[in-house]
Design brief:
Order of helices and strands: HHHHHHHHEEHEE
Strand order of the largest sheet: 1-2-3-4
CATH class of the largest domain: Mainly Alpha
Mean pLDDT: 78
Oligomer: single chain
CATH superfamily of the largest domain: Cation efflux protein transmembrane domain
Radius of gyration: 25 Å
Shape: elongated
Helix content: 55-70%
Largest sheet: 4 strands, mixed
Number of strands: 4
Low-confidence stretches: 1-5, 298-314
Number of domains: 2
Number of helices: 9
CATH topology of the largest domain: Alpha-lytic protease prodomain-like
Structural class: alpha+beta
Length: 314
Amino acid sequence: MDAFRVDRTYLGAHHGRNERRAWLAAGICAVTFLVQILGGLAFNSIALLAGGVHMAAHVAALTIAGLAYLLARRYAKDGRFAFGTGKIGYLAAFTNAVALAITAAVLAGESVMRLTQPETADFHGATPVAVSVLAINLLCMWLLRPAEAPQEAAEDGDLNLSAAHLHLAADVAVSVLTIAGLLAGEHLGWTWADPLAGALGAVLVARFAWGLARRSGAVLLDMSPNPRLAAEIGARLEAAGGHVADLHLWRLGPGHHAAIAVVRDEAGRPAAHYRAALADLPGLSHVTLEVRPEAPHRDREIPADALTRKSASV
């Protein structure tokens, strides 16, 4: 029983570090939001105003991320959560994906309106503000970089942090487009470049939103998260002498997975034998095993009253 976690605290290894950085980035973005809105109004730049709206979404997103860390930590040992609070971060990530999608829609609508009803912007005054915003976005992206190696972060990292990082990455892309549009308007006289930059930014933000919603939604719906881990579990159970009749794997939190396995064993080995085979498997934090006698022929149904079950759940 002590081979696996029993306290059901399935928080990421860098939970505290990520929580502190989420709040710090939220404060920086709040200041930047005010600068963008004031700059957009002063210089009549739709791209700057659009960036401000997007930055307001960042402030909300980072606040949601910070609250998710806070709540997950505060209720980590609350027995009402059967599998811990590790999924609160995924719920926050999905919420932030919805916020990104709404931001993309608002940005696209405003950009289309300015394309059909052009207004002249103060390109010379707006460009330095846009460059400053880009620098701040890059700073926040650096703060929110994953602590894990890139491959680990992509496969089983903290998706709550990844969602916040993705928000900033989207804003960096929008900022680059904004600067390009402002420079084109100032030096080439392309007044349409500023709202076009906003429209292209909306497309990028929508794409980011879709990817984030798909990843976080998969975890919330308990889709099998790691084919390699599932294959390794099956291989170890088979190597221990059993036949895997059923296996379910899902994610509990960053770096934590749960598994339910039904093993057929004609030798009558106990569940503890198979649990020991999985004890040192990284990322497997909660296991439920059921061992049944092996059927003489695997294509023949075993009567329910003939099964002698030897189960263990941790």
